[in-house]
Design goal:
Layout (H helix, E strand, L loop, with lengths): L5 H16 L6 E3 L7 E2 L6 E10 L11 H17 L4 E12 L4 H17 L3 E10 L4 E10 L15 E5 L4 H10 L5 H8 L5 H10 L2 E7 L3 H12 L2 E5 L7 H8 L6 H6 L5 E6 L4 H10 L4 E8 L4 E4 L19
Parallel strand pairs: 4-5, 9-12
Antiparallel strand pairs: 1-2, 3-6, 4-6, 7-10, 7-11, 8-10, 9-11
Helix pairs in contact: 1-3, 2-3, 2-6, 4-5, 6-10
Bound molecules: adenosine-5'-diphosphate (ADP) and magnesium ion.
The site of adenosine-5'-diphosphate has 13 residues, from helix 1, strand 4 and strand 5.
Length: 331
């Protein structure tokens, strides 16, 4: 049998190709190949489950996204949801709807990227589904993690007076997207868009720190995502624009623009950093713990009892995105 394209390989040929590349993992009793996967849970832990879909030409474009990094990102954004709860990612399923003319090389590279990300974060691929698509590649990943019930962090625990924190830097992926749309490429910013690194260790460490009251991953910009914490915690907040952590690469790209693109850092999306809240007494401990994880975290605001989420500029004045003449930059 010829195996150099998808039509010759068929559904089961592709599944065994993926299964052969996948490695087993912790707690996997029966992996790919049976009607259902069987996994052994760690005693005393609860399961965390999250799922995300990626649609071609909605969430990614094959002309920008090489298959290796697409595979990595498909899993990374799911791992990020487990990290956001302080969970330990363990198992994943991968469901694909594939156009029949998709080159096998693309699928091999995609699988290689997916499994590399899995290996880096201790995740085992335990199943999925495979079918053909009439239009575009569809990727659906489900991730399952575990954690002790008392350590799981939700969006609902923020209290007035807590500080609002964020890991890493903001706006890099959104800046990367603007560059890629113009056919420009700055390696660091493009990688932040195409190959995000989920904050798995930081999430687990923060969960264990006893300091954090609420947490979320920043996928839609800190303004919107802190807004989810605020809503579910019944609080509001003030975000200080001047304290948002920005990378040197972001600042360099911003220098070439007519106005500073605050909107990209506030609501640009796809940062996959962690936003969390903690009592100010925990400040030093949090900084030290994050340093041990090899990342930085910065306080960027304060939780308030009034329900609004406000952004203040460097002069302490309310910042309105629409007044900055920068809406043309936000798609
Ligand atoms: P069923 O008909 O019972 O749904 P399938 O033929 O779809 O079974 O799948 C056979 C096995 O291969 C199952 O263990 C399933 O979880 C796994 N599988 C199918 N597609 C994928 C995929 N894209 N990635 C990983 N495992 C897959
Ligand atoms: Mg099936």
């Amino acid at each position: 049998m010829k195996n150099n394209n998808l039509v010759d390989l068929g559904e089961f040929g592709l599944i065994s190709r993926i299964a052969n590349a996948a490695r087993s993992g912790r707690g996997v009793v029966t992996g790919i190949g049976d009607d259902a996967a069987v996994t052994a849970l760690t005693s005393g832990m609860q399961l965390l489950t999250s799922t995300d879909m990626l649609l071609e030409d909605v969430h990614f474009r094959r002309c920008w996204h090489d298959p290796y990094r697409l595979g990595r990102k498909s899993l990374a954004i799911n791992i990020s949801d487990i990290a956001a709860m302080g969970g330990i990612p363990r198992w994943a399923t991968l469901s694909l709807a594939i156009p029949a003319d998709m080159p096998l090389d693309f699928l091999d590279e995609f699988t290689r990227g997916f499994l590399a990300m899995a290996g880096e974060h201790g995740v085992a691929l335990i199943g999925g589904d495979t079918c053909s698509s009439k239009q575009g590649l569809v990727i659906s990943v489900t991730i399952i993690g575990e954690q002790l019930p008392e350590l799981i962090l939700r969006r609902s625990g923020a209290r007035p007076g807590d500080e609002i924190w964020v890991t890493g830097t903001l706006g890099d992926a959104a800046m990367g997207l603007k560059l890629v749309e113009r056919g420009e490429g700055e390696e660091y910013l493009l990688n932040r868009l195409l190959d995000p690194i989920p904050r798995t260790t930081a999430g687990i460490v923060l969960a264990g720190s006893g300091q954090v009251t609420a947490m979320i991953d920043v996928s839609d910009g800190i303004l919107g995502d802190f807004g989810h914490i605020a809503e579910l915690s019944g609080v509001g907040g003030i975000i200080r624009l001047a304290d948002l952590p920005l990378s040197p690469q972001f600042r360099a790209a911003a220098a070439g623009l007519p106005a500073f693109p605050h909107a990209l850092a506030l609501s640009g999306g796809e940062d996959y950093e962690l936003c969390f809240t903690a009592h100010p007494d925990g400040r030093e401990k949090i900084i030290a713990l994050m340093k041990k994880c090899g990342i930085e975290a910065a306080p960027v605001g304060i939780v308030t009892s009034s329900p609004e989420v406000a952004v203040l500029d460097a002069n302490g004045q309310p910042f309105h995105q629409s007044h900055q003449g920068f809406n043309h930059f936000v798609s």
